[in-house]
Design goal:
- By secondary structure, the protein is of the alpha/beta class.
- 47% of the residues lie in helices and 19% in strands.
- It has helices at residues 21-25, 39-44, 46-49, 66-78, 93-105, 119-125, 163-180, 182-189, 193-198, 200-220, 235-244, 249-267, 272-284, 295-302, 331-339; strands at 2-7, 12-17, 33-38, 53-57, 86-91, 111-116, 133-135, 138-142, 150-153, 308-309, 312-320, 323-330.
- The protein has a 7-stranded mixed β-sheet with strand order 1-2-9-6-5-3-4. Strands 10-11-12 form a 3-stranded antiparallel β-sheet. Strands 7-8 form a two-stranded antiparallel sheet.
- Strand 5, helix 5 (93-105) and strand 6 (111-116) form a beta-alpha-beta unit.
- The longest helix is centred in the middle third of the chain and has 21 residues, at 200-220.
- The chain is globular.
- It starts with a strand and ends with a helix.
- The mean pLDDT is 96.
Length: 342
């Protein structure tokens, strides 16, 4: 077990790598703990939840809504939860997003512990304090930035993670390498997904590496006024297609990264050889790189994106592998690029 403490703008967050949930929660009064999880995690790990008050949500992105969070709040009130309650979000990105959001608004803020159970949540969703819900097809339109007290990376949860969720999570791993770490990109090229599934030490190192990349960016720019925008690589188009075409998040981001590489080639002279390597790596980890989409459907969603600024869009491009850049693209030019089928 390894621990790290990181100081954000208004809270110190303790990262616990390789710990276990039962031991970690012993520091809190059990009567004050309320766990939020989903039906899949609850089914596979029901023994973990037996001694705690637990709110079990339906599983899936379609339930990441204000209505679900309202339901959480009602259940907290029925439990007579108070300002000293500790909400513990145990699950993938959907659960950690909603648990964080609920904790930030219930009684104007209660203590929060996050226990991500998927690769995607461990390397990305649970780290950085962002949380919230979708509004129809518009991703993460409502939410807050609210840091937990603890993020616990309990690798035991990965033993029951479905194969497709391993694939889904590696989109965010590849994203981090693309924007910040060429050597790590090369390391990923030398391996394949099964290596990480079979080797506990290898996956533990991968989680720490990716958490480190994201944390360093977030500490410099917690509220996304500059550098943190790099973490949106692949997400602008990815979010637009995710809910419209009902794709897993990682699949949508993978397609979005490939589109961003094509735009980077046109606008920033991103080397075609590097673009080919990104495509080959995504395919190696069994992620999709293309989808047939209706431009106007995508465009309507893009226009509502949080990164839009008047008549332009803040977009993350690559100058080379490991060197991401934030670029403002005029909406007219972006629409033309979509028409060309990027």
């Amino acid at each position: 077990m390894k621990e790290q403490t990181h100081l954000f703008s208004n809270k110190s967050v303790n990262y616990i790598f390789g710990g276990n949930i039962t031991g970690t929660l012993e520091q809190y009064d059990r009567e004050k703990i309320v766990i939020i999880t989903d039906e899949n995690v609850h089914r596979y790990h029901h023994g973990v939840f037996e001694k705690f008050r637990t709110i079990v949500l339906k599983a899936g992105e379609q339930y990441k809504t204000q209505q679900t969070v309202d339901g959480i709040i009602v259940q907290l009130l029925e439990m007579q939860a108070d300002k000293n309650t500790v909400i513990v979000g145990v699950g993938g990105g959907v659960v950690t997003d909603m648990a964080g959001y609920a904790a930030s608004i219930f009684k104007r803020g209660v203590r929060l512990v996050l226990v991500p159970t998927s690769i995607l949540a461990m390397v990305d969703a649970a780290v950085g304090g962002k949380n919230g819900v979708d509004v129809g097809v518009y991703k993460n339109m409502v939410g807050t930035v609210y840091q937990p007290e603890i993020i616990l990376f309990d690798h035991d949860f990965l033993k029951t993670l479905p194969y497709e969720e391993w694939v889904n999570g590696f989109a965010e791993v590849i994203k981090h390498a693309c924007i910040k770490d060429r050597k790590y990109f090369e390391f990923l090229e030398q391996h394949e997904l099964q290596d990480f599934m079979d080797d506990g030490e290898l996956i533990a190192d991968l989680i720490m590496k990716n958490v480190g990349i994201k944390t360093a960016i977030v500490i410099e720019d917690e509220f996304e006024t500059g550098e943190r925008k790099l973490l949106n690589f692949g997400h602008t188009l990815g979010h637009a297609i995710e809910n419209i075409y009902h794709l897993p998040h990682g699949h949508a981001v993978s397609i979005g990264m490939m589109a961003a590489c094509t735009i980077s080639e046109e606008i920033k002279n991103f080397p075609s050889e590097d673009k080919g390597r990104v495509k080959a790596l995504l395919l190696k980890y069994q992620l999709p790189v293309k989808i047939k989409y209706e431009t106007e459907k995508i465009w309507k969603v893009l226009l509502m994106d949080k990164k839009r600024q008047n008549d332009s869009m803040s977009f993350v491009l690559l100058r080379s592998i490991g060197d991401g850049i934030i670029q403002s693209i005029p909406l007219v030019q972006l629409h033309d690029l979509l028409d060309q089928g990027v």
